[in-house]
Give the backbone structure.
Amino acid sequence: MASSRTTKSVARPFWRFLNYAIAAAAILLAGFLLYWTLSQYSWSDLVASVTAVSPGRLALAAVFTTLSYLCLTGFDWLALHYAGHPLAYKRAALASFTSLSLGHNIGFAALSSGTIRYRFYSRWGLETAEVAKVILFCAVTVALGLSVLGGIGFLTSPETAQKVIGASHATVYLIGAVCLALPAGYVLLAGFVGGKGVHFRGKRLEMPGFRLAAAQIVIGPLNFAFVAAALHQAISALADVPYLEVAAVYVSANLATVITHAPGGLGVIESVVLFLLPQADLIGAVLVFRFVYFLLPLLLGSILLVSSELLLTRSETSRSPGVS
């Protein structure tokens, strides 16, 4: 018994130090990314780019960005129910926004935002396996969102999709149909085996219930629809481009981001704007969108991370029994 207590008392400071190190590294990296991104542009470029967009469009871009991040907090709230360890929405929202506002800029979202999620959720009683379920559920919701919005974009704007992927009309329609069929099959499977395990390549995956799967199908595409709407407002400051065209190109470019893990979609947003407006000056639309969707949330997320570390750590210390 004494040996067990000694081992736990030795292990506790190590894990506490490791958690502090992870939090400090995330904060420092976030600060560096904010400085590095802004340092590429002069102050005059930043001011000129923002002022070139009308206050109305800038406000709408901010509204759509807020709605996107609200959807993302819903990802975590649903995922916690899937993991069997539901928490109050305000906790899910704090963990989600803080982790994703940094993860979107750092890249390698599953690792970067996943580490910060673990930092929050482990303090609130989740085991490692439960946090892994949360991360997996959110990743699947992202994939479903891309699939649904991509399918709609390919079927409603086949000419744009054809230019993006360089395929025939028939191929574009086929891809669009497949993109919509996969989420439909996912929901049907959840209806039949929801809450039970599905064996895939020798591994057992637990399917969510029908209601959770249906919620994923709704909230996943909504997130990307709002992101595309924010980008559309920035692009519309330069030219009149239909929303569905922006959404179709954005989804295609976002797939490249998922594959390359580019920090903050580096190079991807530029590719979208360049594709839609090959003769236009890119800096205005790109800077406005980056500021609204990436940099401002990064700043807010960094502040929340620092504040939560101070407040939650102080709370943990006050609750911890003394070690004799």
